[in-house]
């Protein structure tokens, strides 16, 4: 449920402000057009399976055709093969395993059999983020964004990748992970409530969803993704979230799932609060556009949930977002091998498979693509300070003092100039 009764009346005002009654006709036509497109596209996705997610070789990134790039942009997710060699990636996993053995008090979940670790500065992680190929992949992804107005944005350089220290998982076979249903990260009600963030979706909200460009940069940079200061929300702008595989992992083995059409999911999730079904949610005719109607008489935002004096979501569900046909369209990424990376645009609906039916670990380090922007640059200065003293990065709760651990990465693990810039460290190793 979307707990509509807990919604403050100001969200009703917000809805009305965003979409005045005068645009009702236009918005309804656009919504109906969107539902038609979703019907076609979701059928295609459901039929295709994991191969629908584009796969490219790291070595070919600069050789892709405009058509191939536009497919990647439309789908919003990509597997990049062989970013680092197998030996390096499996070596990092082995070293992480040693690290957690040597530091049994390291925070992780589940408590009895830790697999998801709240660790940021192990040597493997520091080296992986600093790897020039990882940074090159990041810069390539950052450059999929552009500034529509053609303005030069001060302090912005998409070709300079920065690093965002995040965690890793070594997921064991079996078990049940229920904490990662389909969701979008980095901003909940803020997508509508914050004016700059809302401008990212302006074309959708004015009835022109086909013009919506999820890769327009300017408004992203001013968007406030965290109006309520909830803990655990990234305060940097990641053009793509991502991970680096340290094991061979295929569909059904606890891997990532995505809804592989970011333009369509954005259009639908953003417009959904302004429409309601006129039949019961479990009606067999729920998908029929005739059974939906423009309605801004309630303050609810389906898929957004009050939490910690703020809001979490969007969490699209089959019940509240039926046209995404999530049960059939959440697509597992294809088989990955150690050294491959998977990236998904910051707006992509994604989840983690609840079951792991394989017989070996599914191990990844979370490494997103982060461009140089004023806000991101300011963050990495603070992040570098935490690195040098072995504390959790600024965006993450201070659960333990990492400096007490054995086997942390240090300044000398960040060698190349590109890596030192990315980490906010002086070019010369101290
Ligand atoms: Fe996520």
UniProtKB/TrEMBL annotation:
It comes from the Eukaryota. InterPro entries: Gig2-like, IPNS-like_sf. This is DUF1479-domain-containing protein. It comes from Boletus reticuloceps.
